Structure formats: structure tokens, C-alpha cells
Amino acid sequence: MDTKIVDVAAKAGVSPATVSRVLNRSNGVTERTRLKVMKAIEELGYHPNAAAKHLRSQRTKTIGVIAQDINSTYFTEIIKGIENMAYAQGYRVIICDAENHKEKEQEYLNLLLDRTIDGLILIVPLITDEEIIELADKGYFVAVVGRHIQHDRIPCVYTDNVKFSREVVKHLVQQGHRDIVFLNGHPDAVDSFERLEGYLKALRDHQIPFRPEFVENGHFSENGGYEALKRLVEKQLSFTAVFAANDEMALGVYRACAELGIRIPDQLAVIGVDNNRISKYIQPTLSTVNQPKYTMGAILVEKFIDQMNENQFENKRVFVVDSELIVRESSLFTVGKKSGPGNK
Amino acid sequence: MDTKIVDVAAKAGVSPATVSRVLNRSNGVTERTRLKVMKAIEELGYHPNAAAKHLRSQRTKTIGVIAQDINSTYFTEIIKGIENMAYAQGYRVIICDAENHKEKEQEYLNLLLDRTIDGLILIVPLITDEEIIELADKGYFVAVVGRHIQHDRIPCVYTDNVKFSREVVKHLVQQGHRDIVFLNGHPDAVDSFERLEGYLKALRDHQIPFRPEFVENGHFSENGGYEALKRLVEKQLSFTAVFAANDEMALGVYRACAELGIRIPDQLAVIGVDNNRISKYIQPTLSTVNQPKYTMGAILVEKFIDQMNENQFENKRVFVVDSELIVRESSLFTVGKKSGPGNK
DNA sequence: TTGAAAGCGCTAACAT
DNA sequence: ATGTTAGCGCTTTCAA
């Protein structure tokens, strides 16, 4: 348990330096001595002390990942992508669950500042672009998923929110809808902003006038979606479709509809974003947008590690991946139904 | 970024030792010098180097947590409990996602061996009791959730599988069922074994003869549950209720029933275990067993940290928490339905 | 109350 | 190809 490199060296009849060489680069050592050393390591059950190694080499080969909340498959899938790719490159990953608190995110930033990790990946955090840029400017390695930051040293991967949002609305229009409500997420989140932008552009595409009262805020949460829909109904607005900026809010819409006796999709079509696992179990199954989460994590971390190893520089820093619309029951009229939307 | 303790010391006009004292124990330092030092730290933006600290102090104040798969709320809830309590005690937590591979679990064991972490918590891992005990015997700190290990130095927290399984079966019997199928998890998992035991005891409680063909293996997975139900039906067995050892398998049962045209709960009652989030969204809502996951994590880590700090010894090492049966639609006959179970 | 100095376990530059 | 040795940045005895 507390055998150290000198013990191994003594047992193998070599110097600590040689043991170190065997442990790291295998070149510069005879096969014969290499075997002697390996044998000694084996027999002593020796494990190099990480702290000593990190202190001496000034790197930990560890990447930190801050996720907004690990209780959602959006984050866990991305993390899996990051982790597997990182391990393949000899890097460890520390997962941090910020539980939706900015304060907790800040807490985890210390991992970077105290050099516990070599680099930090933020998955759509609450921390602002400015704060992230400040870190990068100080020389720390930072990368982001699900967000675009204008900075030479910050790798990004995200999906084109505007693009898929337009597709969502287009699909709804093709189903005969014109009174389409948009449920926004956190008002200051980039994702919200861009999805709203896509919604607006799509309305223009189809010559549908924009009605400000058709946009409600649901803060990306189930309960937020629930309350947003209730507010809309109370306002006596007449609409036939809801585009929720994520599946969580769509779930809230389902709950509100159940209470109010609104039938999905006949009286109200619903589409979410994220392809949350629940979306295909719920009744009716929820139409949604799928992002290639695992791939996003993997692509990003590969680039990130390259950057940290200085193998590669600024050639390709930003990765935009494609999302796909998954049409399920919640946005399609039931077979046999003749009537158009809005027939309450 | 690379300011060190000597820089702070120089700036504050004191010795490195004094700075260290300010940083750790605040006693033995005048308020005046403490303020001087704090000011210097602030102005230089100094952050102590973790590796150096760990190397010197021989502890990292970090706990590792290996979860079988972070893609399930069972694990994430426990992790949240662990993390929040650990942080409150000044400990960091490293989350490891083993993705259901024993090999990956072994990989993460290195964190313990190379002293990156002071202690390791395993949440129902695939690693065997023997392997865990071996670590403990070597002097490493290890603890487990959802499993009971007979060893003085290994804190455990789990829920009484036998007890709640009996309750589940009792509830089904009270609903009029006698032909109750049990869907087992991994055949070698303790949880499976104990839930099966509870099932058997309950049958005895109600004088229902045990039929071996009523037990099928579903490996705790959705697909496993799906296939298990199909096998049962192919065997032409007649049964009116399914007790699945977890919600995932119950989900598989739902899918199989949908394909086979079996109505839940009228033709088949279903109960799972875990209170997975999906269980209350699915139609019909799934009856299940809820374990106090967050609390389990919190209780355990508190004890574990005490142990690592040697504040406390062997007085209370094993925590058994209570689970509760949550009855939802999948195990209740629809209102208005007169007929008993099994009326296909 | 504060400072001087040793040393945690490792790697890498330099020497042989 | 292998050994010697300095030093990574910190904490903690011991001395003042």
C-alpha cells in the first residue's frame, strides 16, 4: 500500500529513474531490465502516487466536466461521449453535478484554479460567456458544449438551434397549424434565444404574423411548462400547437392538458426538444428534436485534448452538428380524424 | 496563475509557514497578520496547488463514487445525497460512470490505489464482495450502497428487499391475484436474490404454492423484461400479475403487453421497483417501490467521512432504510370494472 | 506568534 | 542504457 518507487528500484536492483522510465516512456530501457522492473512492481503491488506525479509533471491528465444537472439524459449522454473518448486518450474525467446552481458551478471552477484538472468542459452552464472567456484569457483550458463562445482558445460544439426550430414550426404548419405558441426556456440562455429566433424566422417563412402574447416563459422545467400553459389558457388565447423549447416543459404541458381536459394532439399539438427518454414512453408519444449528444461530447473532447497537448492549434475549433426532428404522435392527427386543428 | 505560497509570503511580509497556517487552521495567527496574508492572497489571485497539498498532507479530501450507470435516477439521486453531504463536510466527490461494465469499475479502482481519492463508495457495483473486502483489508476506505457486506470496516446502506417484496406480493394478493409472476434481475445480484426471497416468503404467507416456471430472468433491463414476458406467454402460462424486480423491466413488460394486446391492469397487473421518474408518466401509471435514495447517499457518506477522520469507530456501520410501496394504476382494477383478474 | 527547514514521491536534466 | 540529484509547492515539526 505504501510502497514507493525507491522500494521497487531496490527490489529490481535498479535506480528510481529507471523504474520511472519503465512506467512512462518505455524507450531507453533494455527489455531485460524492463522485465525485472515489471516483476518487482507486480510483486510489491506498487501503484505510483498520483499527487507526486501531478506535482512533478505539472499536469494531471484529468478533465473536469460541469453538467447543469446529471438527472437528465441530455447531460449524461454527452458525458458518456466525453468520458469514453477521453479514456481512450489516457485522460481521466471528473464529473461535476451543478444541480442547476450557479454557485455550485463556481465551486467547481476551483478544480481548474488549484490545478486538480488540466482542463474544464462546461455543458451549457449558467456561468456567463464573459466569465468563461476570462478563464481562457488567464491561460486555463476551457471548452463548452451546447453553446458558442467567440474566443480563439475555446473549443465549442453545438447544434444549430435556429435551423431545427424552423423545421419544427414548418412541420406544424404542414399539419395545418397557424396559431403556434412558443414556450421559452431561461430567458437569458443562448439556447432559448436562438430557438425563439428560429420560431420567429419560421413564422416569417410562412407569412404568419408574430403575436408576442404567444411566447411564454417556462424556464426549461416541467413545472415551468405546466404553469406557462395554464397562463396561456387563462388569457383566453386560441392556439392549436405548442412548440416547447425542451421536453421537460412539454411534459408540463401534458400535465396541464390532462387537468384541463385538452386532448393531445387533436385539440393541441405538442413538440419538445431533447429526445428525453420519457418522450417515447409518454402517451401520446412526444414529437421532439434529437441532438447527437454522445457524438457531441466525443468530438469536443478529442479536439480539446489535442489542444492541451499542443498537437494542434486553431484550425478547427467550432463544431456544429445536425439535429433531427422526430415526429411522433403528439404532433400528428389521429388516423380517422377528419377535423383540422383547434376543434375544441 | 502560477503564484505560489512563497509569493504570497513575500508580498505579505511573512513566512510561507504563516500563509499556510492562515489557509488551514486559523488559530496561532494574529488577526493582524491574518488580514495581511488574506490581502496578499486576494491581490495575487492565489490558489493553493492541490497536488502539492495532497502530496504533503497524504490525503486529498476527495471521495470517489462508482455508479453502475449514471443514466438512471436511482444512481443520480443517491449521488446527489452523497455529494451535498460530502461538500458540507469539506470533501470533494468524483463521480465515475461504470456504464455497466465491470472492467470500467476496475479501472476506477485505480483512483483509490494511486491515492487520488481517500475513499471509495460503490453504488451496487458488479465487483464482488470478495474484491471489495480485499481492498478494505489492505487498509483502503470503501463503502457500499444498496448492498450489505460483512466486514467491520465497510459502511453499508440498503433497504430491506425481503420486506418490501413481501408487501408488493401482499398488495397483489389483496387485489385478488394468486398467479403472480416474478421477474428477476441479474441472477447473481444480491438485490435479485433478496427480492426473490421476499416473493417466496410472501407466497408462503398467503398459502400460494410456488411454481418455478413463474420466475423469469430479466437482467434488470428494459429489454430483458420485454423478452421475459414474451417467454412466459409463449409457455402458455396463465398468470394475472407481474412483480418486476425493477421499473426498467416493468417498462419492458409494458412494451410486450402493448404488442400482444394485453391490457394493463385489467388483464395483467404490473408492479416495479425504484420509482423511476418514467413510472409516473407512463400509461397506466406504474405501481412501484420507492427507496429514499437521496437520504441513503447522505447517511452513508456522513458515516464514511467520520470513519476516515477516525472520529468514530465501529458503533454504527450498517444502515437499513425503509422503502414504501407506491400504488398507482398498474396494479388497481379500473373503477367500474366488476370482473376479477385474469379475465382475458 | 512566527520562521527555518525538512521532506512528501515522483520526474527529468545531466552525468556516467 | 542507467544512475544521481534537484526540485515540483506545500505542511509541519522544531526552534526562536
UniProtKB/TrEMBL annotation, chains A, B:
One of its GO terms (molecular function) is DNA-binding transcription factor activity. Residues 3-57 form the HTH lacI-type domain. The keyword Oxidoreductase does not apply. Gene3D superfamilies: 3.40.50.2300, lambda repressor-like DNA-binding domains. SMART domains: HTH_LACI (SM00354). The keyword DNA-binding applies. Keywords: DNA-binding, Transcription, Transcription regulation. This is LacI family transcriptional regulator. The lineage of its organism: Bacteria, Bacillati, Bacillota, Bacilli, Bacillales.
